[in-house]
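Saturday, quiet lab. Running sequence design on the C-alpha cells for the scaffold JK sent over.
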C-alpha cells in the first residue's frame, strides 16, 4: 500500500524515495510513503498561493459550507480513519474513534464560528473620517503538526479555523503518521475542496519543512511540537507570523482539603490516556504530604483498570507509546527519580516483555519524588505519574517554577477562593480547578504563558480564527 501526498488536487509520490510505515503496535509494515524534497514543497506552496485570492473571495457562508462538507466526509469514513490511527500511532481504537469525531466537530464548530465573527468600525478623533477594520486571512500558511493526535491537532488548531478564516494551507504531518494524513486527504478531496487550497506534503524537517518555513510564499506558520523544534522554526521564520504550541510539564496541585477520589480519577486520565502523550498531560503531581499517602493508594488501586495491549483488541485501554525516543525519555526519568530517592509504588514499571514491539510500557506511579528530579523539570510525554510532596503551601510556587513550561495546570481544593487566588498567580495558558491539567475544550483559548517555554499564540475555537487572520483598515475622509 502506497500512501501518497496530495498537492494541487493530485496524488503525488516520489519514486526512489520510498520509506516504510511501521506500526508501533504490531511491528508490521503498513505500507510506504515517499518523503518530499524542495520541488514538491515549492509546487504545493505555489498552488496555495495561486488559490489564496479564490478562497478569500468566498463568503464566510461558502467557507462554512465547505467546512461542513469536510466534517461529513470524516464521519463517513470514521472507522477506516480510526483503524489506521490505531495501527500507525498506537492509541486504542476507541480513543482513535474519538479523535476522528473531534476532528469532524472542529470543522462544524469553525463553520458556525466564522459566520458570527464581525468586523469593526472604530471611532477616530477626526470629524467626518470613518474607519472600517476588516478581518482578513493572513495568506498561505505552512502547518506542521505532531504524532500524538495525528489528525485532530491539525484539524482543531489549524486546518478547520484556517480554512474558515480564508487561508490556503500546506500541511506537513509528522513523517511517522503520514499514512493517516494521506487517507485524511481523501476526505478533503471527497468534500470538493478546490485543488490547491489545502495540500499535504510528507517530508523531513531538513529537506521539506525547513524549505517551507523559509519559502517566500509562506505568510504564516502554525506549529505544534517540541520546544526545541519550535525554537528552530521561529529562528528560520524571521518576520513571518507564527503560532506555536510547544512543550508542557502539566503540574496538578493537590491541597490537603482536596476530594481525593476526584483528584485521583483526573490524574490517572491525564497521565495514562493516549499513553501520556498529550502536551497538557498530568506529569507531576504536587501534593500535600498529609494526603499524599492516601492519594498514592487510590492511584495504585484505580490504575488496575488500565490494560496495556494491542490497540485494536477489545478491552485495551492503553496502547504502546509511539516511538523509541519516548520510551527512552520515560525510562530515563524513572531511573533518575529513583536514584534521587523516589519509590516506584505501582505494581510494575519499565518495558513490558513479550510484546510485539519494544514500545509497550507499564503505566508507572512514583512517590517521594525529589524536586530536582528530571520529571519535575522536563517534559516526559509518557505514562508516568510523579508525586512530589510538600509540607507547606509556600513551597508550591517555587516547585512549579522549577520547570520552564507554562502550558496547562490543575488544582484540586474544596476552597474555591483559595483555588482562584492560586490559579491567578500561576503563569500558565490555562489552569483548571478541580479538573486535571489535560482538560480542554476548543471553545476556550489554550497556549503557552508569556515568557515560558510553551510557545505563544492561542488555539481553540474563535481564537484560532483570530490568530490565523489579521485586521486591515480602510479609512474614508468625508470632509469637503
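Result came back. Writing it out in full:
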Amino acid at each position: 500500500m502506497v500512501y501518497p501526498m496530495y498537492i494541487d488536487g493530485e496524488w503525488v509520490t516520489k519514486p526512489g524515495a520510498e520509506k516504510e510505515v511501521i506500526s508501533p503496535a504490531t511491528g508490521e509494515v503498513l505500507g510506504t510513503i515517499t518523503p518530499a524534497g524542495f520541488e514538491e514543497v515549492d509546487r504545493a506552496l505555489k498552488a496555495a498561493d495561486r488559490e489564496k485570492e479564490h478562497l478569500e473571495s468566498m463568503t464566510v457562508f461558502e467557507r462554512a459550507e465547505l467546512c461542513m462538507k469536510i466534517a461529513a466526509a470524516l464521519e463517513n469514513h470514521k472507522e477506516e480513519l480510526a483503524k489506521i490511527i490505531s495501527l500507525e500511532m498506537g492509541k486504542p481504537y476507541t480513543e482513535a474513534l474519538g479523535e476522528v469525531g473531534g476532528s469532524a466537530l472542529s470543522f462544524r464548530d469553525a463553520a458556525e464560528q466564522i459566520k458570527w465573527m464581525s468586523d469593526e468600525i472604530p471611532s477616530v478623533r477626526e470629524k467626518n473620517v470613518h474607519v472600517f477594520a476588516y478581518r482578513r486571512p493572513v495568506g498561505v500558511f505552512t502547518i506542521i503538526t505532531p504524532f500524538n493526535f495525528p489528525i485532530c491537532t491539525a484539524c482543531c488548531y489549524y486546518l478547520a479555523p484556517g480554512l474558515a478564516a480564508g487561508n490556503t494551507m500546506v500541511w506537513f504531518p509528522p513523517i511517522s503518521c503520514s499514512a493517516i494524513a494521506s487517507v485524511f486527504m481523501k476526505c478533503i478531496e471527497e468534500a470538493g475542496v478546490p485543488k490547491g487550497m489545502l495540500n499535504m506534503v510528507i517530508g523531513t524537517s531538513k529537506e521539506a519543512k525547513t524549505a517551507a518555513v523559509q519559502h517566500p510564499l509562506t505568510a504564516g506558520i502554525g506549529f505544534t511540537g517540541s520546544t526545541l523544534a519550535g525554537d528552530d522554526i521561529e529562528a528560520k521564520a524571521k518576520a513571518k507570523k507564527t503560532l506555536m504550541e510547544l512543550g508542557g510539564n502539566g503540574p496538578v496541585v493537590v491541597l490537603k482539603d482536596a476530594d481525593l477520589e476526584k483528584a485521583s480519577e483526573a490524574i490517572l486520565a491525564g497521565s495514562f490516556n493516549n499513553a501520556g502523550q498529550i502536551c497538557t498531560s498530568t506529569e507531576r503531581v504536587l501534593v500535600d504530604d498529609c494526603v499524599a499517602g492516601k492519594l498514592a493508594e487510590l492511584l495504585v488501586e484505580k490504575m488496575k483498570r488500565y490494560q496495556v495491549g494491542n490497540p485494536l483488541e477489545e478491552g485495551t485501554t492503553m496502547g504502546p507509546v509511539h516511538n523509541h525516543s519516548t520510551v527512552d525519555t520515560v525510562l530515563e526519568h524513572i531511573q533518575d527519580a529513583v536514584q534521587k530517592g523516589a519509590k516506584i509504588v505501582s505494581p510494575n514499571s519499565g518495558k513490558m516483555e513479550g510484546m510485539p514491539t519494544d514500545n509497550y510500557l507499564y503505566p508507572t506511579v512514583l512517590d517521594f519524588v525529589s524536586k530536582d528530579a528530571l520529571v519535575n523539570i522536563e517534559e516526559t510525554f509518557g505514562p508516568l505519574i510523579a508525586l512530589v510532596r510538600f509540607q507547606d503551601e509556600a513551597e508550591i510556587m517555587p516547585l512549579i517554577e522549577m520547570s520552564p513550561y507554562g502550558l496547562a495546570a490543575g488544582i484540586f481544593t474544596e476552597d474555591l477562593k483559595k483555588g482562584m487566588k492560586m490559579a491567578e498567580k500561576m503563569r500558565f495558558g490555562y489552569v483548571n480547578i478541580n479538573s486535571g491539567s489535560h482538560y480542554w475544550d476548543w471553545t476556550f483559548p489554550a497556549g503557552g504563558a508569556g515568557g515560558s517555554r510553551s510557545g505563544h499564540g492561542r488555539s481553540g475555537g474563535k481564537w484560532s480564527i483570530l490568530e490565523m487572520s489579521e485586521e486591515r483598515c480602510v479609512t474614508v475622509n468625508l470632509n469637503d
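Notes for JK: The radius of gyration is 23 Å. The mean pLDDT is 97. Ask whether to fix the surface positions before the next round.
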